[in-house]
Design goal:
Layout lengths: L7 H23 L6 H15 L5 H18 L2 H21 L10 H5 L9
């Protein structure tokens, strides 16, 4: 049997390669079901449909912004871009249809029976 003599640098390079492969394998095996833009959007829409304009436009926009910040932490960059383009449209509609007042009587049809299943969103 031959003996191999390796330098400290070579040993570190081999060790780093092994750690990187192990890490990638772990991530692939344990996170196959990536959180998607569609799932994040469904969560936001569910919240918006539930709350509607009852809390006022500013409060609703703040809540949606907070949900966007959380989604950004969990989504890949590509998925976040998809999600963000839909969020921009949603926030424009909230701005257009909700009042600044928190006791605003909103059109129930707008959030709970308009277009699509379960409401406009």
């Amino acid at each position: 049997m031959k003996k191999f003599i390796i330098t400290e640098e070579e040993k570190n390079r081999i060790l780093n390669m092994h750690v990187e492969r192990t890490k990638n394998q772990y991530l692939t095996e344990n996170f196959e079901d990536e959180y998607t833009a569609e799932e994040a959007m469904d969560e936001v829409l569910s919240y918006v449909n539930m709350v509607g304009c009852s809390e006022g436009k500013n409060r609703l926009l703040q809540d949606v912004s907070r949900m966007v910040d959380e989604a950004q932490k969990e989504l890949s960059e590509e998925e976040f871009e998809k999600f963000h383009s839909n969020i921009d449209k949603l926030m424009q509609e909230i701005d257009e249809y909700c009042s600044d007042d928190d006791d605003y009587e909103y059109d129930d049809d707008f959030y709970h029976g308009g277009e699509g299943p379960g409401g406009r969103w």
